[in-house]
Amino acid sequence: MRQFDAIILDLDGTLIEDGGGIRPRVLSELRRISSSGVHVMVATGRSEQSASPVIDELGILNPTVIYNGAAVWCPRQRCLIEERNLEKALLDQLLKYAEQNELLPVVMCAGSKRAFSPRTDAVGYALHDMKNVEIVSPSQMRIERPIRLSLFSDRHQDSKGFADEIQSVSSSDAYYTWFPLNLLPSHEDSTLQVVDVQPNCEGKKEALRFLQEHHQISADRCVAIGDATNDSPMVVNAGLGVAMGNAMNELKQVADRTIGSNDTDAIADLVAELWPV
User: Fold this and answer.
1) Which secondary structure element, helix H or strand E, spans residue 149, and what is its range?
2) Which pLDDT value is given to residue 37?
3) Which of 50, 129, 193, 269 has CB 3.0 to 4.6 Å from 159, enough for a Cys bridge?
4) Which residues of 160-178 are buried (b: 16+ CB within 10 A; e: fewer)?
């Protein structure tokens, strides 16, 4: 009898190699266990537009937790099946703060991303790998049903300090995640710090909740793998929480075990160990 019935995987720095794409053996092992009845799920901070090419490559079209837990996307129907929204008052407050402090804000909702015109080329480069970003006026940033506000700063030295500042001026509950942009391989030379503001939720722990509600798979029967602090809610609460070898130290400290990096077959090795042929 197998010990675990589901595996939840982050994308960037975890399932995806630094050069892009999924390693062939990792892909093969995940498809193997999926065909045997193990539920394979992705939980990512990406939007549905950004996550969809990776899900298509994976070829396992299970609902995907996106926006760090604020929404669930169905890759079969190509639509959101769950969605939380930021309070309009909070969005307006933080957009005003971004204007006053020369931050770059990006507002996201289902199928849409809008941003101010970047002040500098360095800040503008933060948008280069975002899909379908529309540059608009400040008034056009106040969209209906906003799911996330991302704020980029070139004047903060660390992302946690940036997040603390944003939270100190926020008047409403929300779910905050933060990271240095150079954590992403495509921005390894960037000095920008990023804070993502999502509607109040439990982060990627929402993946565990979804599996319990829709598939009757309890958290202790799940394996969760990630590389950054925004993966902590699922890694800490899963039956087996795993940090990648390239993970942030904060995640390694709370994970049950650490495996190799995303540029190796470490995930394939773990899958073969936990669900042998």
Assistant:
1) strand 148-153
2) 97
3) 193
4) bebbebbeeebeeebbbbb
Q: What is the distance between the alpha carbons of residues 90 and 167, in angstroms, rounded to a whole number?
A: 11
66 - beta bridge partners?
Answer: 71
**Measured distance CA(17)–CA(218) in Å, rounded:** 29
Could you state, in order of their start, the residue ranges of all structural domains in the chain? 6-83+202-274, 88-198
What is the chain's alpha carbon radius of gyration, rounded to the nearest angstrom? Answer: 18
Give per-residue pLDDT as tens, 148-207.
Answer: 999 999 989 999 999 999 999 887 889 999 999 998 888 888 999 999 999 999 999 999
C-alpha neighbours within 13 Å on the C-beta side of residue 246: 17
For the beta sheet containing 79-83, the strands, ordered from the edge strand earlier in sequence to the opposite edge, are: 64-66, 71-74, 79-83
Torsion of the alpha carbons at 236, 272, 184 and 252, rounded to the nearest 10 = 30
Q: In DSSP terms, which residues pair with 180 in a beta bridge? A: 193
User: What CATH topology corresponds to 88-198?
Assistant: 3.30.1240
pTM for the model stands at 0.93
Instruction: Answer yes or no: is pLDDT of 122 > 90.
Output: no
Q: Among 3.20.20.140, 3.40.50.1000, 1.20.1090.10, 3.20.20.70, name the CATH number for the domain at 6-83+202-274.
A: 3.40.50.1000
pLDDT exceeds 90 at position 131: no
Please name the residue that has the structure tokens 């609902």.
Answer: 63
pLDDT tens digits, one per residue of 248-264: 999 999 999 999 999 99
